Amino acid sequence: MIITDNLTKKYGEHIALKNLNLNVNEGEIYCLLGANGAGKTTTINLLLGFIEPTSGSAFINQLNVRENSKDSKRFLAYIPENLMLYPNLSAVENLDYFSGIAGKKLKTQALKAFLEEAGLQPEAFDKRISTFSKGMRQKVGIAIALAKDAKVLLLDEPTSGLDPSASNEFGNLLQKLRAKGVATLMATHDLFRAKEVATHIGIMKDGQLRQQFKAEDISLSELERAYLKTMDYQGTTV
Amino acid sequence: MISKTFIKETKELLREGRVRISLIIVLLLLGMAVFISMRQYRNINEQYATANANERANWDNQGAKNPHSAAHYGTYAFKPKYPLSLVDQGVDKYTGTSIFLEAHARNEAQFSAAADQTGLARFGDLTPDFILLFIIPLLIILLGYDSFTKEREMGTLTLLKSQGISSWKWILGKWSALFLPIFLITAALFLIAGIVLSGLEDFGVFRWDSLVMMFLVYIIFYSVFINIVLIISAKTRKSGISLVLSLGVWILSCLVAPKVATNIAQAKHPYPTAQEFATAVQVDREKGLDGHNPWSDAAKELEREVLREYNVDSVSQLPFNYDGYIMQKGEEHEAEVYFKHYNYLKEQYGKQTNVYRSLAAISPFLPTRFLSMSIAHTDYGTHWDFNDAAEKYRIATQKFLNDHFAENSEYGDWDWQADPDFWKQLPPFEYEPPGLEQTLSQNGTNLTLLGGWFALSFGILFFIVKIN
Fold it and tell me: What are the φ and ψ backbone dihedral angles of B413, each rounded to 5 degrees?
């Protein structure tokens, strides 16, 4: 569902991403770990078609993103670190608009069902987004993905700033989507959450994918050591 | 996607305090402006009807009198207030409302409303055209300056782009949401004006098609303004910058451009001063026949010609009163002199108008202003037309009086008096302003320029602006 083939992005002399080869299949959650500037967000932006690769290709559901920028978006949903919605509209109205933009015509009942499936409390459905916490907004983001019937989910630091329980809840939602066959690529700093939800984990540094593992093959402490080793960390681990 | 964006934008607009307050203020101002204009329109037209009736009664009842005395006694041509002046008062306030029609002289229109006002008038009047031309464009800016920038600033643009939004459908949705409140406010104003004018006594000729045409002109103007505001919002990163740029465009197009156009037109094609004009007229008058001076060279030449033509030795042998005849010939010479000099003024006015029209390309405000005033019959063109009609009537009146004097009295009998009922035979002064078709054909350039702004701004908005 998500494939990158020697995907490279340069800004002048600076290499933001170098020869990235990824393959995320249906029902897989791939977590990209790495420090700031490692190339995680660049990878997501290339998959979204927001920026053009210097070389290589990105594919969403077998469509080359560069050549089918608009069509490829039909299959994906994106949740950024800070999902921003229209503050003066309710959750239902926001979901209605964003799913409408994606070409879905849904009745209010269906919209509410998606919000419920995304874990939002029914009493919040008709409240304005300006009163929502970040966790609640992320749930609306998931509802947008559900309403769109997205085959691919791209997440950029989605749990950053969430409290542990909201973060855990978000992880559970990802598992639900995984069960539906959604291929997820998540950029994160959160090793614990990555180990919890991912099927595959990659560690990036300086625009390159340095290591990748199957989540089931590695423990959390091994993952932490591998991560720190990749980052050339000189301090003491806990 | 268009309707979804339209509904979303409309909900957002209506839920924002600043928008609700702005809309309420504009509606209140419009209501007040229409009410004030309606009262003013009714008062002025009642005064017009009274003055017209009184003046005609004075003329009809002046009693037995020598026709040339009646010519000096004179009468007035009153300019009516036309129905659509309720919407656009144009230059009505600065042009006179009545012209004194008398023998030997063409007079300027007098008694302008501005002349009756105090210095406070410099602050402007609350009229519907002020709201239409200045306030509603400001409202458009207030509603639309952050239309696109807010999406960037709030971060919703990223999510929209990831949803595969179509640029032109999104723009059209936003355009419609901005257009709807402006359309409704403008339509309400014109509908109220139409209902009020239909209900009032028909002093002028109220035509719904003129009102609809004027409405369309404003709607096109607002569409252009909406396009400009959206283009700025789409091409800037920050709402603050977008607001400042949009206000800059408003200042340049609505305030600066008309002043610049006026200054350039006046500098290139100046009118003579009142003193220069009066002197030039006097010089030309003295070169020709004066009906009151039978000893001038021109009078003696005319006398020789007439005696030769009628083959008589003395003017007393003519089959008509030569006093009336020479008076009429003098009038004809004076009318020619006035025609020549007023024609020069009209030519200057025409040249100034051409300068305005060529400068209308720099601002959509200018063609809108000219079209609106022309349709309302409150422009200088209509004022000139009224002046010409009054002058034509004055010349016809003088001929009517001089001919009666010449045909019914003896030479030298200045004591002869016309019958008291004779004055009633003079047809009343009637003036019909140009019809809508004529007005539009005279404003072809303005229509083309406004249409050009409309097409160009839409072209830029939908085909050049890409949201990224």
Answer: -90, 75
Strand order in the sheet with A55-60: A14-24, A2-11, A55-60, A63-64
Residue B220 lies in a domain: yes
Residue B337 lies in a domain: no
- Residue B269 per-residue DSSP state: S
Q: Which of B5, B7, B159 sits opposite A78 (nearest CB)?
A: B159
Report the distance separating Cα B432 and Cα B79, nearest Å: 10
Contacts of residue A58, defined as CB under 8 A and 6 or more positions apart, other chains included, come to A3, A4, A5, A7, A46, A47, A64, A65, A66
CA distance B188 to B30: 10
> How many CA atoms does the CB half-sphere of A36 hold within 13 Å?
1
Number of domains composing chain B: 1
Q: How close, in Å, is residue A157 to chain B by CA atoms? A: 15
- What burial class does residue B120 get, using C-beta atoms within 10 Å of its C-beta: 0-12 exposed, 13-18 middle, 19+ buried? exposed
Residue with tokens 């051409």: B354
**Residues A204 and A40: beta-carbon distance below 8 Å:** yes
User: 5-44 in B: which are within 8 Å (CB) of A?
Assistant: 5, 7-8, 11-12, 15-16
A141 and A173 Cβ atoms separated by less than 8 Å: no
Q: Find the closest chain B residue to A79 by CA distance.
A: B159
What CATH number has the domain spanning A2-84+150-230?
A: 3.40.50.300
Sign of CA dihedral A156, A157, A163, A169: positive
Residue B258 inside a domain? The answer is yes
B136 found inside a domain:
yes
Calpha distance B464→A63 (Å, rounded): 27
What are the structure tokens assigned to B194, written together? 């139409």
Nearest to A83 among B7, B159, B160 (CB): B159
Query: Average pLDDT in the B245-269 region?
Result: 90
- Tell me the C-alpha to C-alpha distance, in Å, between residue B448 and each of B64, B220, B249, B441, B454: 57, 12, 21, 11, 10
From the CB of residue B46, how many other CB atoms can be counted at a distance below 10 Å?
12
Pairing of strands A152-156, A183-188: parallel
Using DSSP, state whether A12 is helix, strand or coil.
Answer: coil
Per residue in A57-102, pLDDT (tens digit) is 989 988 898 888 888 888 888 988 888 899 999 999 999 999 988 8
Task: Give the pair of three-digit tokens for residue B158.
Answer: 């990223």
Q: Which of A70, A85, A101 sits opposite B1 (nearest CB)?
A: A101
Is A50 in Cβ contact with B164 (below 8 Å)?
A: no
Min distance B460 CA to chain A CA atoms (Å)? 22
Q: Which of A130, A155, A153, A144 is nearest to A97 (CA)?
A: A144
Where in the sequence is the domain holding B191, given as residue range(s)?
A: 2-287+342-377+432-464
Query: Token pair for residue A54?
Result: 């210097």
Q: Are A154 and A22 spatial neighbours (Cβ–Cβ below 8 Å)?
A: no
Q: Is B117 helix (H, G, I), strand (E, B) or coil?
A: coil
pLDDT digits (tens, 9 = 90+) for B11-26: 888 888 888 888 888 8
Structure pTM? 0.85
CA neighbor of B410 nearest in space, from B294, B315, B331, B339: B315
Provide mean pLDDT across the span B76-82: 82
